[in-house]
Structures are given as C-alpha cells and as structure tokens.
Write a structure and sequence with these properties.
single chain, seven-stranded mixed beta sheet, binds 6-O-phosphono-beta-D-fructofuranose, 41% helix, alpha/beta, 328 residues
C-alpha cells in the first residue's frame, strides 16, 4: 500500500493488558486526527476484528483516558485468530469497514498474529510493545513496565515493614512468565537479599548461603524476590526448601500477581506510550509495515517484526552485579 492510500487505521490492544495502553490508543487516535486520517477502535483484540466489534474514534473519544489503567478497548488472547477461518472473518471485517492498516498494541504473541495475517492478506501493520514484562526485543522499555516496577517496589516496601517487625524471611513472587526484568529491577529497587530470575542459573545452595550470610552480617529479616518464570522452582517450593534447610526461620510467601498489571500509568509510561503511538501512525503513513516502533537510547526506532519476535532482550550483567554487591 502506497503512502497516500492509507486513509483509515484500525487500532487494537491484545494479550495481557498493561498500564499505558490507553495512553497509546489516545496517541494513535490523536495522531490520526492530526494527519487527517480516520481511526477505528477494535474491541477485545483480534476477537473484535473477527466479530466486527468496531467503533469510530476521534480526538474527543479518547479524552480522560491518558491516566487510566487497563485498556478501554479491552484485550484478549484470541484463540480464533490462530485459525485460518478466524483470520478470514477478520479480513472480511477489514474490507467491509475499509480499514487500510492496523496498529497492534501488545506483546510478541500479538505481533506473530499480525505477521501471519499480513502474509495471508497483505494488511500493513505496525506493532507497539505493550507488556509489563519488558521482554520484547527492539525497545529499551515496553509500555507498562515502569508502572509495574513502581507498583512492585511499593508492595515490597510494605512487606519489608512487616518482615522486619517479625524477623521474618519473605519470598515474594513478581510477574514475568519468561523474563526476570521486573524481578531484577524491583529487587534492586527494594533492597532484596536475593533475586531469582530465569535468565540466571540459580541453585538452592547459593540461596541458602546468601541467607546465611545475611544472618551472620546481623540482618534479622530478608526479602527474596522470585520471578514467576524462575526455573529452580516456584515461590512456594523455594520457601519450603528453605524452611527444611533452616527450620528456625519464620518464612512467609506473597504472590503480587495481577496487582502489578493495574493502576494509573507512571509518567514514564505515559510519555513512552504517547511517543510510540504517534510514531506508529507516522510510520504507516510513510509506507512502513511489519515493524515495531520502539525506543532505544531515547530515540524512536523501528525494528522488523521478525526480529522483535525471534530475538530476546538480554538481562544486563551489570545489574546482576549491582544486586550482588548490595546484598550484604
Ligand atoms: O505477559 C504479561 C503477564 O502479566 C505475565 O507476566 C504473566 O505471566 C501473564 O501475563 C499472566 O497472564 P494472565 O493474565 O492471562 O493470567
């Protein structure tokens, strides 16, 4: 599709929601208005394309959402879009509503769906990385990550208050199905004694020795932050193994869970979402497709969707060292 032939852009949010998705939708809609393009909101991710759940949006329809958590378009992990029949229905909706291009706000699974759809029907699209996990290649930060980190450290700080009062060891699970970004950064930010993430091969011996050292150094309580995707064991298994090794320890477990996914987006997420929303609209009008708009070293960059899906953001080794040095 040539540059000038894009008149109507459809926008959807897909996969796990993330704070800042609303801000990104707002930016897409207002950028469309700025460039005299029509914008259509697609409800409940790809399911809305399949079931023709659309609404025309304009600059006023996205008022008062810049600060709201969740996504007013709603989100879904669509099983039907994984089928050829589902995608055929989605294409019919696109034709009937004269949608020329799509903006997909979500994670790598959502981008994979858009990519298959492009191969079959040639609908241009640009992805915007929206997930609290920060696990998407091609951007330093994903929308929602900063807010989730702030929520996590606020919760961990509160847990530390009670942990200290009772001389307890707390195992706290934070989100991150396949990635330890939330765990590592919230662990450093809250002064955790140990941080267990899937990117690092951990052992129970190392965990026990770290807890022992903390006791010897005069600490009466400790916080261990565990990523949801930790391979050594889940947070309950790790707590049980620790109790067996140190029967005198008073141990508790807290799973922060979906509390990390909600709430008003931080300023950093709002600015990020605003920039990426505009970049995606501009990218489409410049003829770009099959790319993801991201931010690297504070500059907008476009990464091919293939790379964004296949490659993984590496954990910064320096951060692991920071966590180790400070846990004494
Ligand atoms: O991908 C974001 C995420 O919050 C992961 O950290 C978590 O494992 C997953 O989504 C939970 O998904 P659901 O809300 O479908 O249970």
């Amino acid at each position: 599709m040539s540059k000038s032939s894009i008149k109507t852009i459809g926008v959807l949010t897909s996969g796990g929601d993330a704070p800042g998705m609303n801000t990104a939708i707002r930016a897409v809609v207002r950028a469309c208005s700025y460039y005299n393009l029509n914008s259509i909101g697609i409800r409940e991710g790809y399911d809305g394309l399949i079931n023709n759940q659309l609404s025309k949006l304009d600059a006023r329809s996205v008022k008062y959402i810049i600060n709201r958590g969740g996504t007013f378009l709603k989100s879904a992990r669509s099983d039907e879009f994984r089928t050829k029949e589902g995608r055929m229905k989605a294409y019919q909706t696109i034709q009937e509503n004269e949608i020329d291009a799509l903006i997909i706000i979500g994670g790598d699974g959502s981008f994979r769906g858009a990519s298959v759809f492009y191969e079959e029907y040639g609908i241009p699209f640009i992805g915007i990385p929206g997930t609290i996990d920060n696990d998407i290649f091609g951007t330093d930060y994903t929308i929602g990550y900063d807010t989730a980190l702030n929520t996590a450290i606020e919760a961990i700080d509160r847990i530390r208050d009670t942990a200290t009062s009772h001389n307890r060891v707390f195992f706290i699970e934070v989100m991150g199905r396949d990635a330890g970004f939330i765990a590592l950064n919230s662990g450093i930010g809250s002064g955790a004694q140990d941080i267990l993430i899937p990117e690092v091969k951990d052992s129970l011996e190392e965990l026990f020795s770290s807890l022992e050292k903390s006791e010897i150094s005069g600490k009466n309580s400790s916080v261990v932050v565990v990523a949801e995707g930790e391979e050594l064991g889940n947070v309950y298994e790790l707590a049980n193994a620790t109790k067996e090794h140190f029967p005198d320890y008073d141990i508790r477990v807290t799973v922060l869970g979906h509390i990390q996914r909600g709430g008003s987006p931080s300023c950093m997420d709002r600015v990020l979402a605003s920039r990426l929303g505009i970049a995606a609209v501009e990218g489409l009008t410049e003829g770009k497709t099959n790319v993801m708009a991201g931010l690297q070293s504070n500059k907008i960059v476009f990464t091919s969707i293939e790379e964004a899906i296949k490659k993984h953001n590496e954990i910064d080794k320096e951060l692991i060292k920071v966590a180790e040095i400070l846990a004494r």
